[in-house]
């Protein structure tokens, strides 16, 4: 439930390639905002083309946070992101500006809005699961996760063995479903969100995705993937756009097939994102063409909060 007596956090959600960056920049320039990335791969300096980071020109227009802050060799978790993002949001609010969080990764967005329980870890169990994967393969790993939490399996990248292994570790240790590890009651925050969801008709979104992949390849995605191949088992690289190229480098198929798979897997990822977004409470849905309506909604929200704060004072 939105608390209109608290300072505003604008949250922009939507599937990959739907137009979140362009909207965030337009809002930021209109309302004197700063932007926080909730994309779990844009944190890494080495990953630029394949993560569709804002361009240097776009980054120069508006202050951005939590982009290019890590090396691919560094570990980063949703829990760390929660702490970093909340700290940055509070700092932006202290300056009198409005923070915009752009997502991104569902778990990371949820971590900021609601908070996460501490996720359990056991090195011995993780080693056992890794050995299981080496012996039995990806399908067996998927089935092991399906046995404990089929819903969560349907929500994540089922070909990312690193993420599957971590999920199995957490779930087998906790003995509860992943959704139950999110707090039943949200952590207290100094801000309250206005959530904007962007959507396009699926055929149009899929065409946009295909064009974006072609543009990424022309921009040098193949070379970018080669530069990080030494870290290919890192969770951030077991994702669409990189894992397909790693398989191409290993001789599993040709480059044309790799590009086809990137397009297909990106479309599948977008579909999973929309499935998750449909379950988000208090989301206000728009298309990218509705920018004026979105601006009006934000103006109305700011006016309501000013009036509520006068009443509280």
TrEMBL record:
Catalyzes the transfer of a dimethylallyl group onto the adenine at position 37 in tRNAs that read codons beginning with uridine, leading to the formation of N6-(dimethylallyl)adenosine (i(6)A). Belongs to the IPP transferase family. Monomer. It comes from the Bacteria. The record marks 105, 126 as: Interaction with substrate tRNA. It comes from Cryomorpha ignava. Pfam families: IPPT. One of its GO terms (biological process) is tRNA modification. GO terms for molecular function: ATP binding; tRNA dimethylallyltransferase activity. The keyword Cytoplasm does not apply. This is tRNA dimethylallyltransferase. Its cofactor is Mg(2+). Its EC number is 2.5.1.75.
